[in-house]
Batch of 3 targets.
Target 1
Amino acid sequence: GAVVSQHPSRVICKSGTSVKIECRSLDFQATTMFWYRQFPKQSLMLMATSNEGSKATYEQGVEKDKFLINHASLTLSTLTVTSAHPEDSSFYICSATWGAQETQYFGPGTRLLVL
Amino acid sequence: DAKTTQPPSMDCAEGRAANLPCNHSTISGNEYVYWYRQIHSQGPQYIIHGLKNNETNEMASLIITEDRKSSTLILPHATLRDTAVYYCIAPVYKYIFGTGTRLKVLA
C-alpha cells in the first residue's frame, strides 16, 4: 500500500520552456503532498508543501512564480517548472501523506535535464 | 526539526547485521524518529519509525535510547540490495534531510 507515482520519469527540454511533472497517490487520498529537489551527490531539499485545495507553502529561497504547484485533487499534485534553465536540471521527487500522520511516501522521482 | 547527525559511510559484510547509528540530541518529547533509505536514482523508501519503544518490522529494527538522544537502525542480515544511503529524520510537520549514511554491503 501507499504507492506514489511520478510522470514523466525523465524529461529533457530546451532552455526557456516549461515542464510539468505529475505526482499521483495511487491507493490513498493524499491530503498533503511535498516536492523535493536533489542535486547530484547532495541530499533532498524540500521545495514546498501543498495541501489539497490550498495554495502551496514554499520554503525559503524557492521562487513560487518559477515552480508552480497545483494540488487540485486528493490524488494529484503537479509541479511546473516555468522558463526552465540549465541550473534547474535536477532530480525532482514528490511525497504524499494523509491526515495527521507524519509518514511520507515518496514517488520514484523525475530527472529533469534542461539544455 | 531536531538536527540529526549520522556517520557519512559504513561498510557491512553480506549476511551480517548492519547497525546504523543516528544522534538526535535536541529531539523533543513528541518527535518521532523516522528512517528512510534511498537507492541510487530512486525516491526514498520508508523503513521504520518510532517514538520511545523499540520497533521491529519486516525490514529492520529500530532501537531508541531511553533518553531518546540517539537511535540505531538494524538490518539483521544485510544483502547487496541493502546498499543505499540511509537517512534518519526527526520531523515536525516537515522532513529535513541530512547527509545520511552511505551503506555499502560487501559480497
Target 2
Amino acid sequence: DVKVTQSSRYLVKRTGEKVFLECVQDMDHENMFWYRQDPGLGLRLIYFSYDVKMKEKGDIPEGYSVSREKKERFSLILESASTNQTSMYLCASFTSGQGLQETQYFGPGTRLLVL
Amino acid sequence: GQNIDQPTEMTATEGAIVQINCTYQTSGFNGLFWYQQHAGEAPTFLSYNVLDGLEEKGRFSSFLSRSKGYSYLLLKELQMKDSASYLCAVKEGGSQGNLIFGKGTKLSVKP
C-alpha cells in the first residue's frame, strides 16, 4: 500500500512566522502535490513537483514556496504566515505509467491555524 | 475554462440508493476520479473511469459519458458510514497526474 505521511496533523502558528509542512511518500512516486482545502472552495492546487528539484505553480501559489530536494519528500513553506492561510493542507503523490488504476494518494492532512 | 459541477449537499435514507452527478468542462480529458472524504480526514480513492460506461465495485458504481461531459457515482444499500463528502476530479492530460477537483457533495445518510 502507498503511504503518504505529513509531519503534523494539527499546527498553531502566529502571524508572521515561517511555517514548514513536510510530506513524505514511500512508493518512489515522481509527482507530488500540495493542496489546501477550505469550506465551499474545495481542493485547490498550490504547487506540484514532477521530479527532484522541479516545481510548478498551481492555481494559488501566492504566499507559498516549495522544496523537493529528495524524491520522497516535498515541503511546503509559508514564508510569513497570515490568518488567511488558516486551512487544511493536503499532500498527494502520483506515479506515471500505472495505467488504468493510476490515482493520487493523499496524506492525512495538516490542519493549520494562524493566529 | 475549467469547470466541474456537482451538487453541494444531498440527503438519503439508510438502505436506499443515491446518485451523485458530476458535469465537467475541461480543456482536455484523461480520466475521471471519484473520492470519498470523511470529515476531518483525507480523500480516499473510490473509482476511475476513462472509457464510457459503468464501472461497478461492490456497493459503489461510477458511470461516464465523455460526449456529454457527465459522470455519476451510484451508492447502493446505503449505510450510515457512507455519510461523507464525495469529490469528482478530472485529469486533464499529461503524465504529471494533475487533477481538477469539484467542490464536493456532502452526503448525509439518515436512519
Target 3
Amino acid sequence: DGGITQSPKYLFRKEGQNVTLSCEQNLNHDAMYWYRQDPGQGLRLIYYSQIVNDFQKGDIAEGYSVSREKKESFPLTVTSAQKNPTAFYLCASSIQGALFEKLFFGSGTQLSVL
Amino acid sequence: GDSVTQMEGPVTLSEEACLTINCTYTATGYPSLFWYVQYPGEGLQLLLKATKADDKGSNKGFEATYRKETTSFHLEKGSVQVSDSAVYFCALSEGTSGSRLTFGEGTQLTVNP
C-alpha cells in the first residue's frame, strides 16, 4: 500500500541537541510539506518542497532545517535554535500541479523536550 | 492574508445528535475549501472539499456547502456516532495546486454513547 511513513512516533530532545524527524513517501508525489501542530492553534507550515533539491520556508521556519535529496524523502531537523520544540509534527505530500489536489498526511511525530 | 476561523471547542454530543461545526474564512480570491479529520494519534485525512461557490462536499454522512456570500463552509451531520469523535479542521487554499493550505484551529468533537 502506498502512503507516508513518519518516524519515530515519539522523540525526546535534550537541551542544545539537534534532532531529525524522518518522512518517507512511496506515492510518487512531487511535493512534500512539514507542519507543526500545537494544541488550539491548528497546523502551521514549517517548510515545503515542490521538487527534488529545492525547498521553501513556510510560516515558521526559524529553528528548523530540511533537505530534499530524494523524491521519496523529506527529513526535518529541529535545531537547538528552536527554543520551543515541543509539538506534534506532521509530514504531508501531494501531486504537484494537480488542481485542488488533496494532501496526504503521515501519522505524525510527537517531539518533547527532556 | 488568508485566514480560517472555526467555532471554539471542545464539542460534546450524544450519539445520534445533530452536528454543526462553524467555519468562516477570509481570502482575497476564490479559494477551494476543505474539511480534514484527525483521529487520535493519527495524521489528518481529507473528509470533503468544495472548489467553487454553492458546491456541496459530502462524505461519510458529513456535508458542507461553500457559501461565498457569507464566506462560510460549515460542517454538518444529521446523526453522529461514537466513531466520529475526532478533531476537525477547516482549511482553504488559493493556490492552483490546492496544496498550500491555511488551516483553522481545529474543533475537538467527542460523541458519547
